[in-house]
Structures are given as structure tokens and as C-alpha cells.
Amino acid sequence: xxxxxxxxxxxxxxxxxxxxxxxxxxxxxxxxxxxxxxxxxxxxxxxxxxxxxxxxxxxxxxxxxxxxxxxxxxxxxxxxxxxxxxxxxxxxxxxxxxxxxxxxxxxxxxxxxxxxxxxxxxxxxxxxxxxxxxxxxxxxxxxxxxxxxxxxxxxxxxxxxxxxxxxxxxxxxxxxxxxxxxxxxxxxxxxxxxxxxxxxxxxxxxxxxxxxxxxxxxxxxxxxxxxxxxxxxxxxxxxxxx
Length: 242
Ligand code: PGA
Hints:
The protein is of the alpha/beta class. Helix content is 31%, strand content 17%. The protein is globular. Bound molecules: 2-phosphoglycolic acid.
């Protein structure tokens, strides 16, 4: 079931997302956080850091599971999601690295990395999963056509996603990895609660497809129609086709 919140600007979106996150942090003992990369959740993470600094809330015993990671970049490469999460969140909290889970994209057997990640993830129930949405309706790297029953796997990035992400690689599409290890749609659906954040007019079609379209693998985010607790927080541009 969807709850939708439309905000005036990115700061408001980030604050609303933080309110939902705070609700979980305040009420659950050591909640398990499902986290996402991308530009969209950065404002939420800034609010989490501010809250940690102001209230002393501790993340020492909190486990985190990230959605995905590129295949083929060393873990400390400036564009890995491991690095992104440290630079935008983990370095500012008191969470030890041993509690942080990001899929591994290194080594010569990414399928094995994916299986091992799913095994670890399956031992837990994510309390709250943060999601962005791709302009093609993807969530994590579950591109259109990904089966709804998919678990953590190695995914090929589409041309659209490679173009969208080239901005992080000096605008050079040839530098964007072509594969990623990603939680599958069924893995994501196991989370107790989901917040999906979407901003900008380029997300408007995907947001429409997710909320109002037919449930179809052509819009992977439409699987969320079957989830019991999804809050979609968006700006007016992303909500403009509703
Ligand atoms: P973005 O990416 O937050 O950088 O727009 C979202 C996504 O592709 O899931």
C-alpha cells in the first residue's frame, strides 16, 4: 500500500524522508537499515548525520545492507557505492565497518558474491529500505524485464542507466561499469517498510508507472504495488504526471 507525500523542494523531501527514518530509529531496538546510493538520498543522509551529531543517537549496533555495487571496480575506487556510502554517511556515524554490508563487485566470480550476499541478507529482516527510482522505473539495478521473484544477482546495466550514471564518470559512458551486483526485487520486497524518494521531472513517468500503471516487469518499481508499507516522497516535478 502506498502513502504519497508531495513536497515543494528537495530540502523538504529530505526532511520528510528523515521523519520516516526517525520513526523507525526511535521505535525499534537496533533496526536493520536498507540503504541506497544515488543523488536522491544524500539529503536524507545529511539529516541522519545532523541528528547523530545533535542527539548522540548511536549506530554502533545497527546493521546496514546496501542495495547494489558495480562489478569490476576496486572497492576503494572513488565511484564504488562502498566509497559513496562512506563519504555521504558512514564516515560521519559511529557504525563499525563490520556492521556495514555492501555487495562485493570485486574478484572473478560476481555470481558467487551475489549468492553470498543474498545468504547473509536472508538471515535478517530489513526494518526500513530506502529506495530511489531510475528514469526507466528500475529500483536498485533491477532494470525493466527483471523477474519479480529475483533475489540478489548480477545485472547488466541498460544503455539508459549507463547514460544516466555517466555524470559520475566525467560524462564518459565508456567508463561506466556494465554490470552490477544487486539485490533482486523479491529481496527488496522482504523489507518491513520502504521509503522511495523521487525528485525531478525525469522521474515523472517512472513514478506514474509505479503508482498508477499496470503491475509489470516493464516498470520494475510497480512491484511495490504489492508491498504493505511504502511511503513515496517526491517533489512536484516527479509528481507532475499523477
Ligand atoms: P538518482 O538514482 O538518485 O541518482 O537519481 C536513482 C536510481 O537510479 O535508482
